[in-house]
Write a structure and sequence with these properties.
Blueprint: H1 2-20, H2 40-43, H3 52-59, H4 64-77, H5 85-94, H6 98-111, H7 117-120, H8 129-142, H9 145-154, H10 160-172, H11 179-187, H12 192-200, H13 203-210, H14 218-229, H15 238-251, H16 254-266, H17 273-285
């Protein structure tokens, strides 16, 4: 009986609180599961509300000022405005003024929809350097097969910044099928390709990369070694990491010694003890930051 009275009082208290908040009609039924949600001002903080219908109307208005404002709003909303991605893609396919093109590329990238990559792809070879570079940056965000294909082609761009962005993008997108293209890009003075190769290579390709030690500037090569050494252990065998440390130890230059000492200082706690031992021995062998100049 006492339990029933307690339950009844709890229910009355809940109803009273609900009535005070003006939400009596919305009071949950006894035994019903309720979902606790943060209040609107907290849940929506930093997330602009998007009026999809209005944005579509503005984008289709044909008025440059209205389109520009809509694209700016989309860029701020990011993925929250993904429903209007087809409208932005349509604008890009039709062609826009230089200013609107840059805004449309920015908006498409912010929405991060892979469906937009096909519309973005042609712009990496645009006559305007600003447009080419904006398109490459946007493709890295939209991802997907079309993005990989466009960035792969962009490795041969006449624009050095576009080539660099393309290499970086392929690495971040995990496009292992482009490793051959990245090695070729590295051979043709695209330094960003080194880090991308380090992100993507399997042991065989990592060995091929290590063989280039001495053929490229050390700071370029070290960007690739960094990716190999600090890849998660499940993605890169410790034996391969030890081989890389060994190649650097054999090089024996001052730069190699400094780099190994830096790696030692950054080595994560709890990672492979075997690799750590190899790094410690290599640092000692090269004198920490010592070694020969050549």
């Amino acid at each position: 009986m006492h339990g029933h009275r307690l339950t009844f009082r709890v229910l009355l208290s809940a109803l009273a609180l609900s009535a005070l908040s003006g939400d009596l009609a919305a009071a949950p039924k006894a035994g019903a599961k309720t979902e606790v949600k943060p209040k609107g001002d907290k849940a929506d903080k930093g997330k602009p509300k998007v009026d999809v219908a209005k944005l579509k109307t503005e984008l289709e208005s044909g008025d440059s000022a209205r389109i520009l404002a809509a694209l700016g709003e989309i860029a701020k909303a990011g993925e929250g405005a993904s429903a209007v991605a087809p409208s932005v893609e349509s604008l890009l396919k039709k062609g826009l003024s230089a200013e609107l093109t840059l805004k449309a590329l920015d908006a498409a990238g912010a929405m991060k929809q892979s469906s937009s990559s096909a519309a973005l792809a042609p712009y990496v070879s645009h006559r305007s350097a600003d447009v080419r570079r904006a398109a490459a940056k946007a493709l890295i965000k939209t991802k997907g097969p079309n993005a990989v294909k466009a960035l792969k082609a962009a490795l041969r761009s006449s624009d050095g910044q576009v080539r660099g962005l393309a290499a970086t993008g392929l690495g971040s997108l995990g496009a292992k099928e482009t490793l051959g293209d990245l090695f070729n890009a590295l051979a043709h003075s695209v330094p960003e390709a080194a880090a991308a190769i380090g992100q993507l290579c399997e042991p065989k390709e990592c060995d091929k990369f290590a063989e280039l030690l001495g053929k490229h500037q050390f700071d370029i090569m070290s960007s690739g070694f960094d990716q190999i050494l600090f890849r998660a252990e499940k993605d890169m065998p410790e034996d391969q990491k030890i081989k890389v440390v060994g190649r650097l130890r054999e090089l024996g230059t001052k730069e190699a010694g400094k780099y190994l000492a830096d790696v030692k200082g950054r080595w994560p706690e709890g990672w492979s003890k075997r690799v750590k031992q190899a790094i410690d021995a290599a640092v000692k062998a090269t004198g920490g930051s010592g070694g020969s100049e050549e």
